[in-house]
């Protein structure tokens, strides 16, 4: 299979392989079979990094991937609200238990700034991810704001880091990327 490419990034998803409205209701062996296909039957070519976006939690996907392929590090992304932080904590502890280094946490939807008056509101709470990181002895790699431009630019196929590279939102993503790369082990020579 050939991945889709945009802006120099190769991408493959289960969503590309099924009908648009079809749910993926797989567990166990079906999940691992699909993951194996995405990892081993996609012509990735030469990669600098392979990023795997997983759902929250500690289910079949996370456990299967962490036990079957070498992982240089995990990044836990969470909103600062209590219920999301429970999953973030469990995810962190699962990766630690299977000896996958946790590179840090990202606080998503950290703040909403009104586009009319610039007032900032912490819709999901202010510092939940920071508090969790402190408890777990991890760093916060950055904060992603809740901003309409992020949604609009992604929906239009022009991610904010491409379409508005000088914006605060783009700078937030780029800062996180730099922090992740800085924490990864050096590639083998």
UniProtKB/TrEMBL annotation:
Species whose genome carries this gene: Gallus gallus
UniProt GO molecular function: 4 iron, 4 sulfur cluster binding; ATP binding; ATP-dependent FeS chaperone activity; metal ion binding
Keyword Iron-sulfur in annotation? yes
Q: Which family does it belong to?
A: Belongs to the Mrp/NBP35 ATP-binding proteins family.
Record-linked CDD domains: Mrp_NBP35 (cd02037)
Keyword vocabulary terms for this entry:
4Fe-4S, ATP-binding, Iron, Iron-sulfur, Metal-binding, Nucleotide-binding
- A Pfam family of this chain: ParA
Give the matching Gene3D superfamilies. P-loop containing nucleotide triphosphate hydrolases (3.40.50.300)
Q: What is this protein called?
A: NUBP iron-sulfur cluster assembly factor, mitochondrial
The encoding gene: NUBPL
**Biological-process GO terms, alphabetical:** iron-sulfur cluster assembly
């Amino acid at each position: 299979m050939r991945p889709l490419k945009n802006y120099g990034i190769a991408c493959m998803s289960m969503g590309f392989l099924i009908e648009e409205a079809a749910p993926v209701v797989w567990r166990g062996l079906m999940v691992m079979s699909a993951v194996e296909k995405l990892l081993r039957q996609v012509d990735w070519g030469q990669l600098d990094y392979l990023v795997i976006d997983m759902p929250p939690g500690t289910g079949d996907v996370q456990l299967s991937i962490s036990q079957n392929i070498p992982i240089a590090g995990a990044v836990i992304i969470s909103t600062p609200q209590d219920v999301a932080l429970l999953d973030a904590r469990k995810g962190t502890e699962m990766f630690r238990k299977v000896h996958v280094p946790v590179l840090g946490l990202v606080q998503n939807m950290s703040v909403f700034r009104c586009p009319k008056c610039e007032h900032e509101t912490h819709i999901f709470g202010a510092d939940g991810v920071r508090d969790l990181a402190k408890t777990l002895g991890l760093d916060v790699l950055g904060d992603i704001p809740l901003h309409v431009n992020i949604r609009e630019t992604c929906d239009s196929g022009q991610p904010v880091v491409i379409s508005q590279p000088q914006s605060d939102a783009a700078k937030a993503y780029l800062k996180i990327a730099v922090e992740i790369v800085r924490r990864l082990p050096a590639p083998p020579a």
